[in-house]
From TrEMBL:
PROSITE patterns per the UniProt record, alphabetical: SAM_MT_UBIE, UBIE_2
Signal sequence, start to end: none
Gene3D superfamilies documented for this protein: Vaccinia Virus protein VP39 (3.40.50.150)
Descriptive protein name: Demethylmenaquinone methyltransferase
Length: 220
């Protein structure tokens, strides 16, 4: 499914988010707080848009994605960026050594993993002691009017927009379904603690349509 929409993926996301995608990316990059010389894993990196934002710091970013089509588009778009390395990888079985990364991040990809708890355990494994994880994901707006309006948008407005701009409108039916089925912020926070992360916290973005989760791997 993601292979088929790779070419127009970023444009479609920008339209569906009403321009908020770039704001969410800025917030995520700031939360990751990349530093020059660090090694950072960007999972479900897609075409590498988020990876490029992180790489501007001088950090080396490994952009990992399960979709070969996404990886191919990303390699072409960022061929001249020596700070981005594309790797095809399964989030539940990462091909990296223990404690390899200063930070691990994933944006709008965890809900696409069949076994998200297993993925979180893998994120923890490859994070260095003292390292951090940042997860940006669609979530549950806490205010009832916002929640009702948001799900009305997912069910009615978004399908119409997708039919106009996407190369595979049927693939985006999954998007609304996966968002509706995804657990609330406090549940994901619990999963992160269960994986071993300390100092777990989250903050809502855009009235809770999206939540930014953070955690630290103990240095002890």
């Amino acid at each position: 499914m993601f292979d088929e929409v790779a070419a127009h993926y970023d444009l479609t996301n920008a339209l569906l988010s009403a321009g908020n995608a770039s704001l969410w990316r800025i917030a995520t990059t700031r939360a990751v707080a990349p530093q020059a010389g660090e090694r950072i894993l960007d999972i479900a990196a897609g075409t590498g848009t988020s990876s490029a934002a992180i790489a501007k710091s001088g950090a080396h970013v490994v952009a990992a994605d399960f979709s070969e089509g996404m990886i191919q588009v990303g390699r072409t778009r960022h061929a001249g960026n020596a700070n981005i390395e594309f790797v095809q990888a399964d989030a539940t079985k990462l091909p990296f050594a223990d404690g390899e990364f200063d930070a691990v991040t994933i944006s709008f990809g965890l809900r696409n993993v069949v076994e998200p708890k297993k993925a979180l355990a893998e994120f923890y494994r490859v994070t260095k002691p003292g390292g951090r994880v940042v997860i940006c994901e669609f979530s549950t707006p806490p205010l009832t009017p916002v929640r009702v309006g948001y799900f009305a948008y997912l069910n009615r407005v978004m399908p119409a927009v997708v039919r106009l701009v996407s190369s595979n409108a049927e693939a985006y039916d999954y998007l609304g379904e996966s968002i509706a089925a995804w657990p609330a912020q406090t549940v994901l926070s619990g999963w992160m603690r269960d994986a071993g992360y300390d100092a777990v916290a989250y903050r809502n973005l855009t009235l809770g349509i999206v939540a930014l989760h953070r955690g630290i791997k103990s240095a002890g």
